[in-house]
TrEMBL record:
Lineage, highest ranks first: Bacteria, Pseudomonadati, Thermodesulfobacteriota, Desulfuromonadia, Geobacterales
Domain called UPF0033: residue spans: 3-66
InterPro entries given in the database record: DsrEFH-like, Se_metab_YedF, TusA-like, TusA-like_sf
Domain of life: Bacteria
Name of the protein this chain belongs to: Sulfurtransferase-like selenium metabolism protein YedF
UniProt-listed SUPFAM superfamilies: DsrEFH-like, SirA-like
Native source organism of the sequence: Pelotalea chapellei
Family affiliation: Belongs to the sulfur carrier protein TusA family.
Gene: yedF
Length: 192
């Protein structure tokens, strides 16, 4: 089993390194820092139908990934084809007064519960991650959307940057590779 060392790598480098390595081999032992790097790599592998074993190793983690390359590659290509994706990069909507922008964003997300069509995925990036944390004005609406089958993701790097990792309660954390793949394979991307 090959070992790749992804410690001290910034997002999305660990996931990209693992993706490249999995194109050549079915089993990997990946050395990772705790937090977003470990979570992102484990989720990346699980989302592609691979077995993931996480073991504490010193101050970091070893993530063992086992799977089938052909199944992984075909699942990756079809995972997000045809989706309608929302990309929310701010905690407010528009460029006007902050208070109005926050009210518009709150109303928009609450209105998603009433529309006939829901997006398949919502990605929160930059200050948009403030919407996905416990206590936000739209937290309960996001939980309801998730219960309706909408996949919700917050940028792990953004959560870390704003020291919000512990407050993230709805959806999952994601990395730039997964976000880019989803946006590029989506039928429609709506950026707010």
């Amino acid at each position: 089993m090959n070992i790749i060392d992804c410690r001290e790598m910034a997002c999305p480098a660990p996931v990209i390194s693992v993706k490249k390595a999995l194109q050549e081999q079915n089993e990997l032992r990946v050395l990772l820092d705790d937090g977003a790097p470990r979570e992102n790599v484990a989720r990346f592998a699980r989302n592609r139908g691979m077995e993931v074993i996480e073991e504490r190793e010193g101050t970091g983690w070893a993530v063992i990934i086992k799977g089938n390359n052909e199944a992984t590659q075909s699942r990756e290509v079809s995972a997000s084809n045809g989706d309608q994706v929302l990309l929310i990069t701010s905690d407010r909507l528009g460029d006007g007064p902050e208070e109005l922008g926050r009210l518009l964003m709150k109303n928009f997300i609450h209105t998603l519960l009433e529309t006939e069509t829901s997006p398949q995925r919502i990605f929160f990036m930059n200050t948009g991650v403030f919407l996905s944390i416990e206590g936000s004005d739209v937290f309960e609406a996001l939980e309801k959307l998730q219960g309706m089958g909408v996949e919700i993701f917050s940028c792990g790097l953004c959560l870390d940057f704003f020291n919000l990792k512990e407050k993230a309660r709805v959806g999952g954390t994601t990395n730039m590779l997964t976000t880019a793949d989803s946006l590029l394979n989506a039928r429609q991307v709506i950026k707010l």
